[in-house]
Amino acid sequence: MKSFSQIDLGSFLLSIAVAIGFFAFIVLIIRSIEIPIRIYLDKRKQRQVSELLEKKNEENGSNI
Predict the structure, then answer these.
(1) Mean pLDDT of each 10-residue bin along the chain, 64 residues long
(2) Is the separation of the CB atoms in 30 and 24 below 8 Å?
(3) How far apart are CA 23 and CA 56, in angstroms?
(4) Which of 4, 5, 21, 45 has its CA 20 to 30 A from that of 37?
């Protein structure tokens, strides 16, 4: 194991920065895929709930 005086600090910090950047890029890609899917699923769920309420209102005979 190298002693601390022999470690190249610039190279070490650059490696850490590249690793953090790579991780951030992967998270960015995952979130850019997840957010539209979540929006679509929320809209679909909201549409199903509104259709269910409309059916219930039609069965009860009230028009709201």
Answers:
(1) 75 95 97 94 93 84 58
(2) no
(3) 48
(4) 21
Contact between 44 and 36 under an 8 Å Cβ cutoff? The reply is no
CB environment 40-60: b (16+ within 10 A), e (fewer): eeeeeeeeeeeeeeeeeeeee
Residue at token pair 């992967």: 26
Q: Nearest-5° angle of CA 32, CA 21, CA 11?
A: 170
Angstrom distance (rounded) from CA 39 to CA 34: 9
pLDDT (0 to 100) of residue 39: 95
3-state DSSP call for residue 63? Answer: coil
Encoding tokens for residue 21?
A: 């950047």
